[in-house]
Amino acid sequence: MATLGAPSPTSRLLLGLLCIASGIIPVLAVFNLGPLDRSAINGPPWLGLLAGSVFIAAGIALMLGERLRNSTLSYGLFAGIIGAFACIASWIAFGPGARECAVALAGMLFESGAWTNDIVCRGGFGVGAALLDGFVIWMIASALRGIIGPGLLSTVIEKIGIAILLIALAPIILPLLLFLIGKILLESVATGGGPDTGRATMPSSSA
């Protein structure tokens, strides 16, 4: 069976240029240049800068390819992308103004969508924002440990990041734990039998 190999340098170059071109459009919109203007951002101007920087960083990573492996630039690009996503999600979840999110449900033969209210929209993005924020704080602690060595500051920052991650995962972990506990209890009741279950019986003897 044939396997897909790594993309050629030409393919990486073309895909990288396409990503960079896509990222330049929202960046130019911040300055009312290009095909879009600042009103198309639907938020503060820095959202356009962050959204564009994600595509630009991804394009640079694609163009450099294997040369990024285990390099400082690769960690910087990765941290920049995650940090940009964290800022965007945090603004949607906790920023000022009303929020409306479209939720699409795709089935086998059809797709339906609905607009959710402000609370549901912020709650969904809040979970994602907390996950990203906690991961970014954890990355900062790891970077500090690598720069200045292990210490109280990096340890405290790392614990804060882990705590935020656990809080963000709580709406997912707690229902799962309750479901597993309920399932175990139901199975134990179903297999436990009545009060006479397990009582030893003596064989009857005939005179």
Helices, strands, pairings?
Elements: H1 9-30, H2 45-64, H3 72-94, E1 101-106, E2 111-116, H4 118-148, H5 152-192
Antiparallel strand pairs: 1-2
Helix pairs in contact: 1-2, 2-3, 3-4, 4-5
Instruction: Estimate the global geometry from the Cα principal axes.
Output: globular
> What is the topology, as strand order, of the major beta sheet?
1-2
SSE pattern, N- to C-terminal: HHHEEHH
Structural class: mainly alpha
**What is the number of helices?**
5
Distance between the termini: 77 Å
Detailed description of the structure:
The structure is a single chain. With 207 residues, the chain is mainly α. Helix content is 66%, strand content 6%. It has five helices and two strands; from the N terminus they run αααββαα. It has helices at residues 9-30, 45-64, 72-94, 118-148, 152-192, and strands at residues 101-106, 111-116. It has a two-stranded antiparallel ribbon. A hairpin with a 4-residue loop joins strand 1 (101-106) and strand 2 (111-116). The longest helix has 41 residues, at 152-192. The model is unreliable at 108-114 (pLDDT under 50).
List its traits.
mainly alpha; single chain; two-stranded antiparallel sheet
